[in-house]
Structures are given as structure tokens and as C-alpha cells.
């Protein structure tokens, strides 16, 4: 190990001694909801956050019905566009859970639109939720992780952040920004024993892809449950990046290195 810090105990092993403690934003629906249910089923103590309190309460009661091995869930209504509220909520979650082994900045918003129809509100929404909201969530957890000298920070970006996707300019740009941010802090925090993981899903069948369906191909789309299962399993090893499904990961990796004229042609074909 580099640096003066003690080697990190992988937080997955923490669960052998006490339940793992996990904070998830955007857990009122889709991937976040499925993640919360999967973690509670495994016996973790989970804090879930999002704006829609009734939806969060529904997720909590579903979770309590399936909880095993002492799994617990707590609800924290939160708008990630309010940085002060994000900081307070992450701190409160840490106090109530007793620690934070893993913080997952999953809340996000997408849109599918031509640049000619894009308003300034659309631009601000993507920046405020996908970039500022995710970064506030991570930043609020950094001092907690550093004082523990272990833990895992997770951001949910997207394969769409690897190159500019037509009709998704703000979504692609915001997810690309989040991935770059996560990469930088991964290197900075490694000596302190804090792991950072960038999750890059392909198409997941949630309310977010409703605007895409029938307008663009959504190859290898998986259910939110499958996405959560993949994430929970792979997060245990705290890799730098988790990208799925693998065929889309491979194609988008190839796409990254295509010359511009080829990428433009293929992307235009896929979008029309
Ligand atoms: N579905 C896909 O194909 C796909 C692919 C790649 C990446 N992703 C990413 O996966 C993450 C989860 O998306 P999803 O597919 O599960 O979509 P979803 O079902 O629409 O979930 C989005 C979640 O984000 C929350 N959220 C939105 N704005 C928020 C705000 N201002 N403050 C707090 N929470 C907020 C929503 O809760 P409230 O409305 O209750 O606040 C909801 O729980 C997103 O970051 C998305 O970009 C999705």
C-alpha cells in the first residue's frame, strides 16, 4: 500500500462483523429502488433518499417485507439540487446508521431532445441533478470516509457519457463530467483507503428510458433488478469502473476510438 494510512478493510468484509451501512440517492424508483431492496435483502442497513416521500415510504415497506439477516431501511426525503440539504442528510444518515460503508450517488435525470428544443431550464436540470447533485452527495461523504479510513464512494454515470450522443447532449455531457470527477478523486483517495467506483450502465428498463423507447434502439436493455444485482455483486470488489451489459460496454469501447467521421455516421444512424 502507498501512503501512511492503514490498508483498507474492504467494506464487504465489514458485514461479517456488523451490517454494512449504505446510503443511496434516487432510491424512490428504478435502479436505486432495486439496489435498496437487494441490499436490505442481504442484511445491510440502508438509508434511501429522493424527493418523492410517498414513493420512498413504499420502497421502505417493500424492503421491510423482504428484509433478511437483520436488514433495515431508513427514509430521507431529499432534493439533491439543494447542496446544504445533501450535506445535512448524509451526515444525519451516518449518525443514524452509526457509519457509512458505501455512498451511492445514483439520483439522475435524462432527456431526449434536439438541441433546437432545448431550454435553459433543461440545461440547468441536467447540471443541477446529474453533476452538482451527484458531486454534493460524494463530497458530503468524503470527510466521513476519511475519518473511517475506509469506505466506498459510488457514482452512477452512464455508457452515454463515453462519447457525445445525439439528442442527449446534456445527458451525455453531464455523465461524462461525473465520470471524470470520479476518476480524479479515485486516485486522490486511494492512499486513504477510500475506494471510488464509477458505474456505467447501458439501457435499464426504468422510467428514464421511456422517452427513448420506439425512438432509438435500446439494445441489451435489462431490468432494474438485473442492473442492481450486477452492481451489488461487482461493487463488493470496489473496481474503478463497472460497465454493463458487456456487449454494449464492448461496442461503446470500440466507439470511443472510432475516427470522428465514422462515429458521427454510426451515431446518426442509431439515433434516427
Ligand atoms: N435507465 C437507464 O437506462 C440508465 C442508463 C445509464 C445510467 N442511468 C442512471 O441511473 C440512475 C438511476 O436512474 P433510473 O434509470 O433508475 O431512473 P429513474 O427510475 O427515473 O430514477 C431516478 C431517480 O433519481 C431521483 N431523482 C431525480 N431527481 C432528483 C433530485 N433532484 N433529488 C433527489 N433525487 C432525484 C428520482 O427520485 P424522485 O423523483 O423521487 O426525486 C428517482 O428515484 C441515474 O443517474 C441515471 O442517469 C440510467
TrEMBL record:
Keywords: Oxidoreductase. Signal peptide: none annotated. SMART domains: PKS_KR (SM00822). This is SDR family NAD(P)-dependent oxidoreductase. The keyword Oxidoreductase applies. Belongs to the short-chain dehydrogenases/reductases (SDR) family. SUPFAM superfamilies: NAD(P)-binding Rossmann-fold domains. Residues 20-207 form the Ketoreductase domain. The keyword Protease does not apply. InterPro entries: KR_dom, NAD(P)-bd_dom_sf, Sc_DH/Rdtase_CS, SDR_fam. It comes from Pendulispora albinea.
Amino acid at each position: 500500500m502507498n501512503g501512511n494510512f492503514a490498508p483498507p478493510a474492504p467494506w464487504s468484509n465489514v458485514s461479517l462483523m456488523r451490517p454494512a451501512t449504505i446510503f443511496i440517492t434516487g432510491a424512490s424508483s428504478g435502479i436505486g429502488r432495486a439496489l435498496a431492496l437487494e441490499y436490505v435483502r442481504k442484511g445491510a442497513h440502508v438509508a434511501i433518499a429522493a424527493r418523492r416521500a410517498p414513493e420512498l415510504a413504499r420502497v421502505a415497506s417493500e424492503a421491510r417485507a423482504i428484509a433478511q439477516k437483520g436488514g433495515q431501511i431508513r427514509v430521507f426525503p431529499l432534493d439533491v439540487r439543494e447542496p446544504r440539504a445533501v450535506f445535512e442528510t448524509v451526515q444525519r444518515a451516518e449518525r443514524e446508521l452509526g457509519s457509512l460503508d458505501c455512498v451511492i450517488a445514483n439520483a439522475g435525470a435524462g432527456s431526449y431532445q434536439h438541441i433546437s428544443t432545448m431550454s435553459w431550464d433543461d440545461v440547468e436540470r441536467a447540471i443541477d441533478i446529474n453533476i452538482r447533485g451527484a458531486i454534493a452527495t460524494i463530497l458530503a461523504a468524503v470527510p466521513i470516509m476519511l475519518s473511517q479510513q475506509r469506505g466506498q464512494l459510488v457514482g452512477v454515470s452512464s455508457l452515454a457519457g463515453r462519447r457525445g450522443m445525439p439528442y442527449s447532449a446534456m445527458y451525455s455531457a453531464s455523465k461524462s463530467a461525473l465520470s471524470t470527477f470520479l476518476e480524479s478523486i479515485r486516485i486522490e483517495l486511494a492512499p486513504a483507503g477510500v475506494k471510488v467506483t464509477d458505474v456505467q450502465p447501458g439501457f435499464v428498463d426504468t422510467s428514464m428510458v421511456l422517452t427513448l423507447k420506439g425512438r432509438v434502439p435500446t439494445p441489451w436493455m435489462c431490468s432494474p433488478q438485473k442492473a442492481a444485482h450486477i452492481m451489488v455483486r461487482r461493487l463488493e470488489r470496489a473496481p474503478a469502473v463497472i460497465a454493463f451489459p458487456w456487449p454494449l460496454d464492448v461496442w461503446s469501447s470500440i466507439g470511443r476510438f472510432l475516427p470522428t467521421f465514422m462515429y458521427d455516421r454510426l451515431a446518426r444512424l442509431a439515433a434516427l
